[in-house]
Write a structure and sequence with these properties.
It is a single chain. This protein has 275 residues and is of the alpha/beta class. It has a single domain, classed as Rossmann fold (3-Layer(aba) Sandwich), CATH 3.40.50. It has ten helices and seven strands. It has a seven-stranded parallel sheet with strand order 3-2-1-4-5-6-7, with helices on both faces. The radius of gyration is 17 Å and the shape is globular. It starts with 7 loop residues before the first strand and ends in a 25-residue tail after the last helix. The model has no long low-confidence stretch (mean pLDDT 95).
């Protein structure tokens, strides 16, 4: 029997990209998947809504609950997490996937954009984890997984887009703190980050355009790594800053070519914050 079968996984920002991929990977193992995101109606440029992903989750073998959620809204976070817990009879895992990005330095970045990144990246990890805590305490396989990088203090990662860096590192620092704080509850708290660029809408529209996509991998590699983490007993791995490829290699995987966004031998671009 799969370790995620009948487990309930609450995923923020799950209407597209890495969040959607994690939702489908969990569904293939028979999980109950909560697709929580702002995308209630179709975006003119971006495919996917919480409802289309819910349909895909059901087709993949999981149960789905699509919920409209703005992770900046503390009251709404609590309402949606409680709604999900009551619907499925509990919550076993929270995946903090929602993110905002703008690779601009202090001189040119609007303060309002910094506020957005801080709210969606850092603050949401605290708010969602706090709201989910009563439910996670009741699970015997409780996990919090945040998609944020290892803490790399090389100044190159602060020089051009320090504001974004601080919000992503804050996610990791909160996770390291919660791993210790929640250890007494048997809740595992880890972070996951890709070794290479992941081809998503955020990359296409905010970072480098379509030409960069060819140097990236599909979101599936992050999804497979996430499922590997969420399927483990909480006491076997907590307080870790994990890298997708490294984790899957530990699981015995040796061939990663099928994860390429475009077939070929073009060098893959390392992701941010990894030297």
């Amino acid at each position: 029997m799969s370790t995620l079968r009948n487990r309930t996984v609450f995923i923020t920002g799950a209407s597209r990209g890495i969040g959607r991929a994690i939702a489908l990977a969990c569904a293939r193992q028979g999980a109950n998947v909560v697709i929580a995101a702002k995308s209630d109606t179709p975006h003119p440029k971006l495919p996917g809504t919480i409802h289309t992903v819910a349909g895909e989750v059901r087709e993949a073998g999981g149960q789905a609950l699509p919920l409209v959620l703005d992770v900046r809204d503390e009251k709404q976070i609590r309402q949606r997490i409680d709604e999900a817990g009551e619907h499925f009879g509990g919550i076993d895992a929270l995946v903090n996937n929602a993110g905002a990005i703008r690779l601009t330095g202090v001189e040119k970045l609007n303060v309002s954009r910094y506020d957005l990144m801080h709210q969606v990246n850092a603050r949401a990890v605290m708010a969602c984890s706090q709201a989910a805590l009563p439910w996670l305490k009741e699970s015997d396989q409780a996990h919090i997984l945040s998609l944020s990088p290892p803490l790399n203090l090389n100044t190159r990662w602060f020089a051009q887009y320090g504001p974004y860096t601080t919000t992503k590192y804050a996610m990791t620092m909160l996770s390291l703190g919660m791993a210790e704080e929640f250890k007494r509850y048997g809740i595992a708290v880890n972070t996951l980050w890709p070794k290479t660029l992941i081809a998503t809408a955020a990359i296409e529209f905010e970072v480098g355009g379509p030409q960069l996509m060819a140097q990236g991998r599909k979101p599936d590699i992050m999804a497979d790594a996430a499922v590997s983490i969420l399927g483990r007993s909480p006491d076997t791995m907590t307080g870790q800053n994990l890298i997708d490829e490294d984790l899957l290699r530990q699981d015995g995987m040796t061939d990663f070519e099928h994860y390429r966004y475009e077939p070929g031998d073009k060098p893959l671009m390392p992701d941010l914050f990894l030297d």
